[in-house]
Amino acid sequence: EVVAGIVKRGGMAKAFVDDVAKKVAVQALVNDVEDEFGGIDILVNHANVQPRFALLDMDEWDWHRVYDVNVTGAFLVTQSVARVMKSKTGGVILNLVEEAGKGVDKEAAYYSSIASLAKMSELAAQELNPFGIKVYPVVRSKDVVRVVLGIMETL
Prior knowledge:
Elements: H1 2-8, H2 23-37, E1 42-45, H3 60-87, E2 91-97, H4 108-128, E3 133-139, H5 144-153
Parallel strand pairs: 1-2, 2-3
Helix pairs in contact: 2-3, 3-4
């Protein structure tokens, strides 16, 4: 839906899929995007997993997979893309997060990982701003597409 909205407004966009929890896969993905578009101006970190296990029933593998995708994956993609953006003229990174304080039963791993992503967004914004890279946490909601497109229109 976001890609369609960007294209409808005359922009260029394409969704790419890979395992963001693996550094080699992320670097290959970034190279593919650069080959396709000649650079990277905008990153939307939206990859996540959300197992629905009670904390006492969740095994270690599920816990690690949630953090590997939701936090480490966002870190690896942000780091790789920010290096590309820094070498050019900057860019925009949007991390999709949840509303603060939200959380339900059987989702401790998911909501704690998304809280980590929100904090990483805040700190990355400070660290990357001097390079012309803007980082925004964007709350998932029924209006997320409108919010993302609104941010893009202000740039």
